[in-house]
UniProtKB/TrEMBL annotation:
Single GO MF annotation: siderophore uptake transmembrane transporter activity
One example of a Gene Ontology biological process annotation: siderophore transmembrane transport
Protein name: TonB-dependent receptor
UniProt xrefs under InterPro entries: Beta-barrel_TonB (IPR000531), Beta-barrel_TonB_sf (IPR036942), Plug_dom (IPR012910), Plug_dom_sf (IPR037066), TonB-dep_rcpt-like (IPR039426), TonB_rcpt_CS (IPR010917)
Cited SUPFAM superfamilies: Porins (SSF56935)
Residue span(s) of domain TonB-dependent receptor plug: 43-151
Length: 732
């Protein structure tokens, strides 16, 4: 009965993102909201896809610990975690390489983005964000490959000129925060110098998170799970299993992160602007917490070491904005370079040999957007060119003798690269006074090349090469049937071209299983229909429902495979079942997303969300649950707002994931769920802010007030227990 009440409440609820009255009115008044996920800004009223926005004020108000937590606490999408230093967003049952991450319009997805779970989004620090826009549903016609489930647009803070700052030459923000659940300490400082033609923004963030403490209290009638009674320490090269002083502290889950950003703008004249964007992020080693808890049949730990090495991300870009370049078109031209380094450091319990596998990725890109008028309609067109290059290394070291040698790398150790060149066009126009339509298309050509120099597994081939013609299209119509009603329909296709991770990786996905290369993969494709119905009353009430259905073709799924006629192989001393990524049949995904925003009084807002997704895949063997499909989830709460005080009392909730609904592929991490599946949960949270002066604001709150022990779907680490935080912001 309790779950039924929760669902009924959340069907009529919303995801209020704004901190001030003005901001919430903007989120309800569709005419005022302008989003930038469509390459050029566009009124939300005329966009047929579902879009949710999270403002800088909301991010600051909630004192989130990472960009993944910004999304996971929104109530509009799910986030999976295998370790505290992670967070893999899930949109409509699509995750990782099937959704697209963009920072300042630059693709973060690269040739080693995997289909499992990714933590790359945390490399964009939450305190550097101006806003986040989440575009739900196929987005390939605007952004290209990978956007099967949608796109997440991370817009960082922007350098300002005097004309933007009311003649304040020097301005900035200092932020700090402390969180009791992990003794987390965060600090951020940004500094803007504004001139008549030049603007400079410098930003730095520091985050230090200790081991995360889980909740102590039972989640309803469910059993306790996830406690950490023991852990491994290594003394003089000997691994020892020791007792944890506090079994609720998840030992070896802490990490540190540093982020730097520099932006420069030059307003050459009224029609021409130049921009430079430099970003760098790095972390300490991040322990892969779930792997450190794995036990063998004799009760011993399987791993003594399982770390992601420092995750480094460098972006440098130049942008030219120029009006009326040719054919009366405004132009955005961006040239960018990215350098990413990732690594995995592993050592089995009792084994002195430690393996390190290091990936170094370089990405070169040129993106061009043009906007002009054709009749009364807007015509947007452009081209994208990308070249990704990978250098994959493997080495091992004996921690007792320090002897070093090479070992198999995660990806082929020769030349690995992909190339993509694509063009797109989009046209939108008003059909009449109440209706408008959007039509868009994209086409391109991609190549992939990979060379295996050291053939440790005796593969029957030493190179992988692919060439693909890609295409997608979308058509949408939105009708503002009355002053209080909006109906939208969108039909779109999307594609994802198999990358090096899909085609050529060698990876122990779980104990006793080994993924090997498969050179015959084809791109996976989808077609999605969305129907949205929105009711609102002025700027005080909005109720929106989105119904969607997706057909997935040539779905890439991990399954049993043979290598040289064998179905198993000895890998790192263990006999492992051979798996490979394969195109396996068709999938279907359907669901509903509902939101409600309602002002009870001018200062009192009721809000919430409800999301439900169902996914299946069918191949020659049978019909199975699709991976990455979270159970129903959402958020509901109340906000009070005034000039001095803001309060937010809300509940986050998830439904139960039955064992029968787990995917057999293993991507849902059934081994890290309780024996009866992932139980439903809800947490209660109270947050507030107090504006002491116009410049200084204090933030405080309690998360997971009841200290419930729970874990989000497909995760390998328990969520935070009761946590009290305190933060402050000073504007100058």
């Amino acid at each position: 009965m309790k779950k039924i009440i929760i669902v009924m409440v959340c069907i009529y609820s919303l995801s209020g993102f704004s901190q001030t009255k003005k901001d919430i009115i903007n989120s309800i008044g569709l005419d005022e909201v302008v989003v930038s996920t469509q390459r050029f800004a566009k009124p939300k009223r005329k966009i047929t896809q579902q879009i949710e926005s999270i403002s800088k004020k909301e991010i600051e108000f909630n004192n989130f610990q990472s960009s993944a937590d910004v999304l996971g606490n929104s109530g509009t999408l799910a986030v999976q975690k295998s370790q505290q230093g992670g967070g893999s967003p899930v949109i409509r049952g699509f995750e990782s390489s099937r959704i697209l991450l963009l920072v300042d319009g630059i693709r973060m997805n690269n040739l080693i983005y995997r289909a499992g779970h990714l933590q790359n989004i945390i490399t964009v620090d939450k305190n550097m964000l101006e806003n986040v826009d989440v575009l739900f549903g196929p987005s390939s016609t605007i952004h290209g490959s990978d956007a099967l489930g949608g796109a997440i647009y991370l817009q960082t803070k922007i350098a300002k000129l005097l004309s933007d700052t009311e003649n304040q030459k020097v301005s900035g923000t200092a932020l700090t925060n402390y969180n009791s659940a992990n003794q987390g300490k965060s600090g951020h400082l940004d500094f803007n110098f504004a001139g008549q033609k030049w603007g400079y923004l410098t930003s730095f963030s520091y985050n230090d998170y200790g081991d995360l403490k889980m909740g102590k209290h039972k989640n309803g009638s469910n059993d306790f799970f996830g406690e950490r009674p023991f852990y491994v320490v290594t003394k003089d090269g000997i691994d020892i299993k020791v007792t944890n002083d506090d079994k609720y502290v998840q030992k070896f889950s802490g990490y540190k992160q540093y982020d730097f950003m520099q932006k420069i703008i030059f307003q050459q004249n009224i029609s021409t602007r130049h921009s430079i964007n430099l970003q760098f992020s790095t972390t300490s080693n991040i322990p892969r917490y779930d792997r450190l808890t794995d036990l063998s049949s004799n009760g011993k730990f399987k791993s003594a070491v399982w770390n992601y090495g420092p995750q480094k991300r460098l972006i440098s870009s130049y942008k030219l904005d120029k009006k009326k370049v040719f054919l009366n078109s405004d132009m955005n031209l961006v040239a960018s370079y990215q350098n990413i380094e990732e690594s995995r450091i592993t050592r089995n319990f009792g084994n002195p040999t430690q393996s390190s596998r290091i990936e170094k990725v370089s990405i070169f890109a040129i993106n061009s957007d043009f906007k002009t008028k054709i009749g009364n309609g807007d015509f947007i067109y452009g081209a994208d060119v990308y070249y990704d290059n990978l250098n994959s290394l493997g080495n091992k070291k004996n921690i007792l003798t320090n002897a070093e040698s090479i070992t198999d790398s995660r990806y082929p150790d020769g030349k690995n690269n992909t190339f993509r060149a694509e063009g797109f066009a989009s046209y939108s126009n008003d059909i009449n006074k109440t209706a408008s339509c959007n039509v868009s298309a994209r086409a391109g050509y991609t190549t992939l090349n990979s060379e295996i120099l050291t053939n440790f597994l005796n593969l029957p081939y030493t190179s992988v090469s692919q060439k693909n013609f890609t295409y997608s299209g979308a058509v949408g119509i939105v009708n503002n049937a009355s002053e209080n009603t909006k109906i939208g329909f969108n039909l779109a296709s999307a594609f994802r071209v198999a990358n090096i991770d899909d085609l050529a990786k060698i990876f122990e996905s779980a104990a006793g299983t080994l993924i090997v290369p498969n050179k015959d993969l084809r791109p996976e494709k989808s077609v999605t229909a969305d129907l949205s119905i929105t009711f609102w009353e002025g700027k005080r009430f909005q109720f929106e429902n989105i119904f969607y259905y997706t057909r997935l073709y040539d779905a890439i799924i991990t399954g049993s495979f043979t290598l040289n006629g064998q179905s198993s192989i000895v890998y790192e001393g263990k006999n492992s079942l051979i798996l490979a990524n394969q195109n396996q049949g068709k999938g279907n995904i359907s669901g509903i997303s509902s939101t409600l925003r309602s002002y009870i009084t001018k200062s009192f807002l009721f809000y919430g969300t409800f999301n439900f997704t169902h996914g299946r895949v069918q191949n020659a063997v049978g019909n199975f649950p699709l991976d990455h499909v979270a159970p129903f989830y959402g958020k509901t709460g109340f906000k009070y707002e005034s000039k001095l005080v803001n309060l937010d009392l809300y509940m986050l909730y998830n439904g139960k994931k039955e064992l029968s609904n787990y995917s057999p592929s293993g991507e849902d991490n059934l081994q890290y769920a309780p024996k009866n599946g992932m139980p439903s949960w809800e947490t209660y949270n109270l947050k507030g802010s107090l504006s002491l002066t116009e410049q200084f604001t204090v933030y405080s709150g309690i998360e997971n007030v009841l200290d419930i022990q729970y874990r989000t779907f497909a995760s390998g680490i328990n969520a935070s227990g009761r946590s009290i935080y305190l933060g402050g912001k000073y504007n100058f």
